[in-house]
Amino acid sequence: MTAVAERSSSTAAPAPVKRPEPPKPPLQNYLLLVGVAAAAFAFFWWTREDTSVLFLPLGFTTLWAPQWPLIGFLVMLAVVAFCWFTRTGPMAAFGGLSVVVLSYWAGSNIYFLDRVTEVPSRLTTGNTRDQLAGYFSPDWGYLLFSNVAGTSRPIWGEWLITLCMAVVATIVGCFIGLLLAMLASPVSSFNKGTSQTMKAINSVVRSIPDVAWALLFAAFIGSTAYGFGALAAVLALIMFNIGIVAKLLGESIDAVNLGPLEAADAAGANLIQRDRVAVLPAVMPSFVSYSLYVFELNIRASAALGVVGVAGIGGELSRQIGRMSQGYDNVGAILWALVLVVLLVDLLSMWIRRKLL
Questions:
Q1: What is the pLDDT of residue 225?
Q2: Among the four 192, 245, 285, 341, which has the fewest Cβ within 10 Å?
Q3: Which of 316, 296, 299, 20 is nearest to 157 (CA)?
Q4: Membrane-spanning regions, if any (predicted)?
């Protein structure tokens, strides 16, 4: 009995081994980072356009310093100190410091910091207060029972137009994007020249925003009595979808497993047969996921296209924004309904993904 007890106690679980702490980074490297922060502070002080200052009373005298450069410098020192106490490597600490410097530089060039300080006062005074009140007390009767200004079309019919535009643009744009992605990827393309040409075309398509595409197509096909109509919006969304799907799916094709491709080549398959049996089955789940994501984007983008006068709820939203002195509650109703529609589309997309993927 004693031997059994001794044996069981000797086989007890060993105590957990304490993980050794990483060594402290070299001090001289962190002193260089402090020097970089000081140089950035001097640069921002020298190039500043804001004249606000902070006064620092010291008892016997009062010092002053430019407000935003000093705050940025303190944030940079806090980042360096945090990295030092957490024993972060010098390169990672330099990366964190670079993020702060670049953020400050970008914000100061667009006067972002000054505008942020004005937000609290703007939200509680003037027109903004009335606008917020209208947004949070929407007129739901306007959406259900009103007509588009100057027409006999009901407002709820504009939502149906928006949904139809999104469906058509998704189906056409995603399948064209699939074809361009296949031609752009060196894994599934005919040759290197075709791949580079398709990548250049995809870059051009992506570089033009959807609003610019809508303006271009509206100039090509003309307008109607109700604005530019749905055709210009659908064509713009198709180009928008092509750019997204061709880019994302092309990267998925580049990363496919080469084993099935080699097996198809060994069996004597030509390029089209190899893509059909080896590439398409591998990327089809990604294609379905990207297509559902693009459909969600189309609902939102169709509302944004209202700024150029296209059909759908976006056009009505643009008209109501144009009469903001009277239409705060109408704009609020459209925006809240848009949030609800996007949430429903997102839930539907999640359900379809679970069923298909």
A1: 43
A2: 192
A3: 316
A4: 27-47, 92-113, 159-183, 330-352
3-state secondary structure the chain: CHHHHHHHHHCCCCCCCCCCCCCCCCHHHHHHHHHHHHHHHHHHHHHCCCCCEEEEECCCCEEEEEHHHHHHHHHHHHHHHHHHHCCCCHHHHHHHHHHHHHHHHHHHHCCHHHHHHHHHHHHHCHHHHHHHHHHCCCCHHHHHHCECCCCCCEHHHHHHHHHHHHHHHHHHHHHHHHHHHHHHCCCCCCCHHHHHHHHHHHHHHHHCCHHHHHHHHHHHHCCECCECHHHHHHHHHHHHHHHHHHHHHHHHHHCCCHHHHHHHHHCCCCHHHHHHHHHHHHHHHHHHHHHHHHHHHHHHHHHHHHHHCECCHHHHHHHHHHCCCCCHHHHHHHHHHHHHHHHHHHHHHHHHHHHHC
Length of the chain measured in residues: 357
In sequence order, which residues have a C-beta less than 8 Å from that of residue 218 and are 6 or more positions away? Answer: 228, 232, 308, 309, 310
Q: In the structure encoding, which two tokens stand for residue 180, read together? A: 């361009």
Q: Is 242 exposed, middle or buried (0-12, 13-18, 19+ CB in 10 A)?
A: buried
97 neighbors 88 (Cβ within 8 angstroms): no
Domain-by-domain residue ranges, the chain?
Answer: 27-56+63-120, 140-356
What are 307's two structure tokens? Answer: 């700024």
Burial class (CB in 10 A: 0-12, 13-18, 19+), 174: buried
Express each pLDDT in 148-206 by its tens digit.
Answer: 766 677 888 888 888 888 899 999 999 999 999 999 988 888 888 888 999 999 999 99
Among the listed residues 320, 327, 324, the one whose alpha carbon sits nearest the alpha carbon of residue 306: 320
Give me the residue label for tokens 């995809």: 202
Contacts of 336 (CB under 8 A, 6+ apart): 138
Q: At what angle do helices 328-356 and 126-135 cross, to 10 degrees?
A: 50
Query: Is pLDDT at 48 greater than 50 in this prediction?
Result: yes
